[in-house]
## 1
Amino acid sequence: MTFDDITEDGRLWSVRYDGDEDNILYSLFDQWNDVAWLRSFFKANSKDLESYFKITNINDAITRTIDDSEKLEAIMMDISPEANLDLIFRPLSNSRIAECLLGKEKARLKKLVGRSSWLRIYAIKLEKGVYVVTGGAIKLTATMQEREHTAAELVKIEKVRNFLIEKKIIDNESFIEYIAET
Amino acid sequence: MKEIQNKLSTFKSSTPSRWREKAIERQKNREWLRYSQNIAMMMLDKMEELGITQKAVAERMGCSQQYISRVLKGTENLSIETIFKIESALGLQILEPIFVNN
């Protein structure tokens, strides 16, 4: 596993998994703009689409995904040196209040599109204002554990977190605290 | 750059990412890409209705299956000739309103 500096100033990184030609952010936006891929995905998850979002027309779901993806991509592209990444990402667990070592985070289009979006970008917070994107998903259900494709994202984020800990890519102060706790 | 970022830099990918380049391209072409995506949706609906595969569409259009796969992604800048071939192969009316209005 390697890492790409997305903002070119060391604040936002994306994982490039072994065997992949480019990083996960590249793959995600490629998928979220691929009509054939989106159609297959929504066909396979049509029950969730209908029960959670009341959408029965697959093409409406595809169009909505492409629209939201465009907005999310624009946010990622336009991250200025002054932008606060802590406002884009928030804790993955809605109940997490305190900061923790290499916290698991998510970015979503809350409030930006005037409705809820099912697109998620998952990341690990290295420290304040510094994030590593580990993956993303079209999340149609209430919890990530409910579906295979979102559960797989939890596995990925944990795998990257373990890699970062193993390679000691954490600030020294946090590492000392982590060792003391474990 | 902070200490932690320097540590991560040691695991930087050996080749540059094309993410930004691709994102800029998508942003620049967003208007015509919408047409391409809509045509892909129309094609996939029709293919399902007819019960035919990408391979069969490629044969009907006289092109490769790889090309059809790209067309169905909705990322191809389609020529009038290709749109005409799609219409003929699938019995679709993509450009029909233009002729009706004229």
Note: Helices of chain A lie at 24-31, 35-44, 46-53, 58-77, 148-166, 172-181.
## 2
Amino acid sequence: MKKEIKWDKESIPDQANLFCYIHFNDINRKTNQPYEKAFQNTPHIDGTDLSADWDKYSTPSETRQRLSLQRNKKGVFKNPDNYFISQLNVQRIRNEVSGQIIEHDPIHNHSELPDNRSHSKIIGEKNVETRLKFVDLCKWAIAPAV
Amino acid sequence: MSETLDLEAPVTKANSWYGHAKPDFLNIDEWLVPTALSESRDLKKSFRKASTALIPFLVESGNIVISQNGFVFSLLSVFGELAKEIEESKSLLRLTEDYDDQGGMPISEATWARAIIFITNYANWIYEKTGKIIDTPQINPGPKESVDILWRNEKYRLLINIPSALNNSVHFYGDNRKGDDNVSGTINENAIQEYFAIWIGSLSKR
């Protein structure tokens, strides 16, 4: 019998970093930077937050590898090789991007998503200002080849 | 206005802006009305037919002509780099459903065309008024089938979003990369806004 997992929500400190995955089609191949659209809430129609992984409980490689357990809209498992991992500092988000709240949101015993103690949410509207600033704040943890 | 448009009438407007970038180009009371591109199939056809007919005038005037499936855009000859970026941005039209594994949808030709009209109008107008050649922006896919126009250099950054839905506003945000000296809001895409043109002009290389 599968053991039920239960992780408590924790407060994420300023010095923490968050990892976000970026699909290769959301990267400008000339500049090697993510497009601003990469930082939008999911689901795209009415989502209220952007998913990220807290570096206390995940490495960039683990964030990337977990994608292989998620399905895309067509029901096919995602290919981690199609993704690269960006890193955002929590303090800089809080100080420089208005209207964003960062919340730890561990996933356990979900019907579709893999268990993920590091899962966190960047809550708030992703308008032109926030999307523009996110790109300038992020740096690559796993970068696309130049 | 569009309801009085004679789809079979010959093009008669070319000489009025031939060789020049006029701020009222593609204005709401002109026959080339970008806001009607996807509202009326006939008008869309008319736009294509009419704009294709302008090519000889534009080439003769030394302008750079960019065409896409019947849409024709004109740039003053100093904008070679921008013309190249626009040509490359046609790749946005080849994006297929779920291209980003997150349910991303293709970008319509009409939305892309509105983005290109926006850029070319401002580039031509600023050059004619101030002699400045604006920095070349990136033309990127945006959220929800929209197009993002992005300027980012050492001093400034500016993002303009051209939405796919015609009844949604064009939003923009820009600052000096320190979060100061910022501009933001919505803008009418159908006419040149001088305050906005001045701000874009500050992104000029020369």
Note: Chain A has a mean pLDDT of 93.
